[in-house]
Design brief:
The complex is a heterodimer of chains A (379) and B (253).
Chain A lengths: L9 E8 L2 E10 L4 H12 L6 E12 L1 H17 L2 E5 L3 H8 L3 H4 L1 H6 L5 H35 L6 H11 L4 H24 L6 H40 L2 H7 L4 H38 L4 H11 L2 H27 L5 H33 L2
Parallel strand pairs in A: 2-3, 3-4
Antiparallel strand pairs in A: 1-2
Chain B lengths: L5 E12 L2 E12 L3 E5 L6 H8 L7 E6 L2 E2 L5 H8 L2 E4 L11 H12 L4 H14 L15 H12 L6 E5 L7 H18 L2 E6 L2 H7 L2 E5 L6 E5 L1 H7 L3 H8 L6
Parallel strand pairs in B: 3-8, 3-9, 6-7, 7-8
Antiparallel strand pairs in B: 1-2, 1-4, 4-5, 9-10
The chains are: A alpha/beta (379), B alpha/beta (253).
Bound molecules: adenosine-5'-diphosphate and magnesium ion.
């Protein structure tokens, strides 16, 4: 027998006679002896072809809740092996404890086994869920479109207080961070450009490069990502918390449309703010570029002239239009994730995460579509 | 209280979440003006029952009528009219966190009446004083206690003078004194305004105090296990478990 400190207080002997497994325990069955006993029992139960199990409890000195766990384990395993099980000479206390745990209520395995988990099944499941999600998304967009159009036709129905509050939070309060990031992006871009262009003594083209890249691409993108992180997640968390607190239900049973009350002010404010923020990103990006150019010895006016010559009005407006669409996507995703929040407090957190992740994915996809579209439109 | 006019009729209603059966073919009626209590252990489907009665969820089968109109099949306009006839207090109060109490109570008035601001605020203040919260009109929901939130939620539910009030666990999580005050409030509102109450609860003292009639849901059979006046259920119900519950002997299986 193994010599372990815990085994000194309890032993488990087992042997196979024919197809019957005899187990007998001695000593204390509690949490301190259990790790050892459990291993022993497991080993005995792993014999092939067991048809019945007899447990001799006559020499058990003490058995508590944890010890009972072991007996239940034997019983459940027997059930799984389709073997009969008999507990002999358990004292009445232990037998009583054991009877507290009816076999059929503990069979976790049998519940889960019903579902096959192979690759095809998994893929199909994910596909169906995505499809259902898509359907919901489209329905939501339709509802939202109706709401937005109604808000445009009757601006009076828009909840102005909420609208302004969201505009302040997602617009005005984001200005410092937007200015800083825009500046840094312009600076980095110009600096990278400088290293490259120096080889060709073509540093002056840094202005063209920074101007085009920021105004067409990076300005709207950076802005949208900031909006996704600051505003999209906030929408999801706010609306998600309201869902968990049954406030959304309260709206519905008061006959008020949660989309009109919560979603429309948020989506319209955030959508309008994003291009405005992009204006600042563009501007501060240019300033960042200018700094590098001045460092290389060009006068500011030369830089400004180059940028003005390189960046056309359609570049600029195209960029802002992109920002507008990104803003719409981000705020819709935020609100939708909020409304689809499940039960419980942790659901709010995961909604916020989901909002940011799906926003960024959608921003990138939309950006790709814009690239193709602008190419064919010659913008 | 006038006669026994049935104001809510639940007919063979079955409720499911996905594949999971929660309520199995229930039928009962609520009379106008009474305080009707839905009773049962935690997780037996009381809130589910309530949410079906107020039309938030559609039953898997069966029908629910308020007056003579089915809330299950009501179209847009009918539904709006139905919703106007009742108020709901949710388990957590569900006050709108971005508005103070006055604005919370004003909101339905603002949306569904043409009253001027002054009139709206006066009415909202009246409702708040009815539940004893007149001085708290300008507090935010986060600044008041749990019992006050529930009372404020009742005030909001009453904003449009509904015929029926649905309350989900009004006294859960409150100390006995506050719970008692809430019971007094319910009785007072029922007597003075003749509002029909449908209340979900499992607080025995409160049931004896307020309930005109109760139904008891059972988590195992998913059916109504007992129906009647609380006093009668205690004395003469055939099921011992039910009698024990009402005698607070603690039931077992
Ligand atoms: N939204 C939901 N989705 C799935 N199951 C739910 C949902 N809400 C409640 N349930 C389940 O339905 C049963 C009844 O819940 P509920 O009506 O909230 O019970 P209670 O009587 O405590 O109010 C519970 O077992 C619960 O887990
Ligand atoms: Mg409940």
């Amino acid at each position: 027998m193994k010599r372990k400190p815990s085994s000194s207080r309890a032993t488990c002997n087992g042997g196979l006679t024919g197809r019957q497994l005899n187990l007998s325990f001695t000593g204390y069955l509690d949490a301190s002896t259990l790790p050892y006993l459990w291993g022993e029992v497991r080993r005995h139960l792993s014999h092939k072809g067991i048809e019945s199990i007899v447990v001799d409890g006559s020499r058990i000195d003490y058995c508590d809740g944890a010890g009972t766990g072991l007996l239940v384990y034997i019983r459940q395993t027997a059930r799984r092996l389709n073997a009969a099980v008999e507990f002999q000479e358990l004292d009445s206390g232990t037998a009583g404890l054991l009877a507290q745990y009816p076999a059929d209520k503990l069979d976790v395995r049998s519940e889960k086994k019903g579902q096959p988990t192979n690759l095809v099944w998994e893929v199909g499941k994910v596909f169906c869920e995505t499809l259902n999600g898509l359907k919901e998304h489209i329905a939501f967009l339709g509802e939202l479109a109706v709401g937005l159009i109604r808000a445009m036709l009757h601006p009076g129905s828009l909840r102005m207080k909420d609208f302004l509050l969201v505009a302040e939070n997602s617009g005005a309060k984001a200005l410092p961070i937007i200015a800083m990031l825009g500046f840094l992006v312009g600076l980095i871009l110009a600096f990278q450009g400088a290293v490259l262009m120096k080889q060709f003594a073509a540093e002056i083209y840094i202005a063209d490069f920074v101007g085009k890249a920021v105004v067409r691409e990076l300005g709207p993108l950076i802005t949208a990502i900031i909006v996704a992180g600051r505003t999209g997640s906030a929408f999801a968390a706010e609306i998600g918390t309201m869902k968990v607190n049954e406030e959304i239900d309260a709206f519905t049973t008061m006959g008020l449309d949660p989309v009109r009350f919560l979603v429309i002010p948020r989506v319209s404010a955030a959508t309008l703010m994003t291009p405005l923020l992009a204006v600042l990103t563009n501007l501060s990006g240019m300033v960042g570029g200018a700094l590098v150019m001045v460092g290389l010895g060009f006068p500011v006016i030369t830089y400004v002239n180059r940028v003005l010559a390189a960046v056309t009005l359609s570049d600029y407006l195209g960029g802002l239009f992109k920002a507008l669409v990104f803003g719409l996507l981000v705020s819709c995703a935020g609100c939708l994730c909020g409304l689809r929040t499940g039960e419980g407090a942790s659901a709010v957190g995961s909604s916020a995460t989901r909002a940011v992740v799906s926003s960024i994915i959608m921003i990138v996809i939309a950006d790709g579509i814009f690239a193709v579209l602008f190419y064919f439109l010659g913008i | 209280m006038n006669g026994n006019e049935t104001i809510i009729k639940v007919e063979n209603m079955t409720a499911r979440y996905g594949d999971r059966l929660v309520l199995d073919s229930l039928s009962f009626g609520v009379n106008r003006g009474e305080i009707f209590v839905i009773l049962g252990g935690s997780g037996c489907g009381k809130s589910t029952m309530l949410k079906h009665m107020i039309g938030l969820y559609k039953p898997a089968s069966g029908d629910i009528k308020i007056g003579d109109v089915s809330i299950v099949n009501a179209n847009g306009a009918e539904r709006d009219a139905l919703i106007r006839r009742f108020g709901v207090m949710y388990q957590s109060g569900a006050l709108f966190g971005s508005m103070n109490l006055l604005e919370n109570v004003c909101l339905p008035l603002e949306e569904f009446t043409d009253l001027k601001r002054e009139a709206r605020e006066l009415i909202a203040r009246m409702k708040l004083s009815l539940v004893g919260l007149a001085e708290y009109a300008h507090h935010m929901p986060s600044e008041i206690s749990g019992g006050m939130k529930k009372r404020a939620a009742i005030a909001r539910a009453m904003a449009l003078d509904p015929e029926i009030l649905f309350l989900d666990e009004p006294s859960a999580g409150l100390d006995p004194v506050t719970a008692d005050e809430l019971d007094e409030l319910i009785i007072r509102l029922s007597r003075t305004l003749n509002i029909t109450f449908v209340i979900v609860t499992h607080e025995l003292p409160s049931i004896y105090k307020i309930a005109d009639r109760v139904i008891m849901l059972d988590a195992r059979t998913k059916k109504i296990i007992a129906e009647g006046k609380p006093g009668e259920l205690r004395e003469i119900h055939e099921d011992e478990w039910v009698r024990n519950f009402f005698n607070r002997k603690g039931g077992g299986e």
